[in-house]
């Protein structure tokens, strides 16, 4: 049952990008379902040991909830779980939340948001970064979990300029190798070609001294360790920030919205490229984080996107800090 098929036909629809642009169709608000509201202010600070972590929401996309969203559970069960948590069942609100690490003189950004390439309720990360008192040129390092457009879109603007002029961009080597492989792009289903093209938009012509490939498992900055978590994408990688005996685990897309995929770690969101590998690493990582009592943060977690994970039922509940 353990399959490694990263280019299956099932990926075509969910990863589809609007023709002629790099806007992921799923990051646009669905018509007639209303508009999600964004938190004000759009950032939240937290201390982890001597380090400050700032969550910076880029936006929220409202997506109609259909059969395809959870690949391996009946829609009725998905709706029942949402209802039990007081959540709507007609749509899913998917937030996008990069994190900033302020450690000594360092300003390290983890993932970037959609930049200028998403719908009208996204692309706010820079505004929130400035509101938190940090300018884009002060970012010295950017850590990327994986190459989906909502995580890398903000690296470069529509004019082609690199938005974080002085930052080194640190990327998981296996993730870079997969998406930059022209043979894999040629073999990909039509609906995935936009994602490959977007990777080329962002990384082609990136100066060699800017792009740093690292092997997952290595330390990427003092006190920040990368952790391989392959499955969502071939090189999907987490980051753990440790300081003075405390740990913050930024889990990227280990789950999509935790109301569904932390509560049921065996459920597969439509964006997981290797669902079985993603399921195994999701279970193992949650178990490890709960045992170590680390603070958890997730890219698609509800604002402020960091808090605690606690065991509940067949999985875990995410409790955002108050
Ligand atoms: Zn994502």
Note the topology.
Layout: E1 43-48, E2 51-56, E3 59-64, H1 75-84, E4 91-96, E5 99-103, E6 106-110, H2 125-131, E7 141-143, H3 149-152, E8 168-172, H4 173-179, H5 182-187, H6 190-203, E9 211-214, E10 219-221, E11 224-228, E12 237-243, E13 246-250, H7 258-261, H8 275-292, E14 295-297, E15 306-312, E16 315-320
Parallel strand pairs: 6-7, 7-8, 8-9, 13-14
Antiparallel strand pairs: 1-2, 2-5, 3-4, 5-6, 10-11, 11-12, 12-13, 14-15, 15-16
The structure holds zinc ion (ZN).
Zinc ion is lined by residues 148, 150-151, 253, 299-300.
How does this model look, in words?
The chain is α+β, with helices and mostly antiparallel strands. It is 22% helix and 25% strand. The chain is built from eight helices and 16 strands. It has helices spanning 75-84, 125-131, 149-152, 173-179, 182-187, 190-203, 258-261, 275-292; strands at residues 43-48, 51-56, 59-64, 91-96, 99-103, 106-110, 141-143, 168-172, 211-214, 219-221, 224-228, 237-243, 246-250, 295-297, 306-312, 315-320. A seven-stranded mixed beta sheet has the order 1-2-5-6-7-8-9. Strands 10-11-12-13-14-15-16 form a seven-stranded mixed beta sheet. Strands 3-4 form a two-stranded antiparallel sheet. A hairpin with a 2-residue loop joins β15 (306-312) and β16 (315-320). The longest helix is centred in the C-terminal third of the chain and has 18 residues, at 275-292. 50% of the residues are buried. Zinc ion is lined by residues 148, 150-151, 253, 299-300.
Task: Return the average pLDDT rounded to an integer.
Answer: 92
Low-confidence stretches: 1-21
Give the number of helices: 8
Silhouette: globular
Describe the biggest sheet?
Answer: 7 strands, mixed
- Please tell me how large the radius of gyration is: 18 Å
Main sheet strand line-up: 1-2-5-6-7-8-9
Give the SSE order as H and E letters: EEEHEEEHEHEHHHEEEEEHHEEE
Catalogue the ligands: zinc ion
| Terminal residue distance | 41 Å
Helix content range: 10-25%
The beta-strand count equals 16
Strand content: 25-35%
Which class of secondary structure composition applies to the elements?
A: alpha+beta
